[in-house]
Write a structure and sequence with these properties.
Strand order of the largest sheet: 1-2
Shape: elongated
CATH topology of one domain: C8orf32 fold
Helix content: 25-40%
Distance between the termini: 47 Å
CATH class of one domain: Alpha Beta
CATH architecture of one domain: Roll
Number of helices: 4
Structural class: alpha+beta
Amino acid sequence: MKPEPQEKKTTTDGRGNRIIVATWTKIPQAVDVSLFCNAINKTGLQTLETQASFPLAVLDKTILDYLKPTEQVQSNHPRIRELARQLTSDVKTQFDAVQRIISWVVDHVRYINPPARYDALYSLESGKGNCQNFSHLSAALLRA
């Protein structure tokens, strides 16, 4: 950073991201800042063996914000909730529930580009969508 800030504080958030807060008390006309991003991704295919029961008995409070309905992922819509219930009514494990829902979406939504809308309900009602629609409908059914 040029010029150097009068105060600089570095912290790390709960996900391991480093956050730097810089403060200038004498603000210059221009401040030059360079940002760097280093992303590390690891992938690998492994046999998934799980007996994690479904439905979940208790949800960790730290994930509840991620499960809320949104404008594009209408997981609280009655048609989405009913379909999710039908698809998972006889499954015993979380893996089987996810597999059942994802398979249904792949089998019942035809890929088009561009779609008229991108939300989950559009895909459920029309049977059409692109990759965003597939993920929105899958997420809505999984959250429901």
